[in-house]
Amino acid sequence: MGRIEKIISSNLDETQKLAYNFSKNLKAGSVVVFFAPLGAGKTTFIKNIVQNFSKKNIEVTSPTFVYMNIYDTETPIYHFDLYRIKNSSDFINFGFDEYFSNNGICLIEWAENILDILPKNSIKININHLGKNKREFIFEYAS
Question: What domain range is 120 assigned to?
Answer without folding.
Answer: 4-138
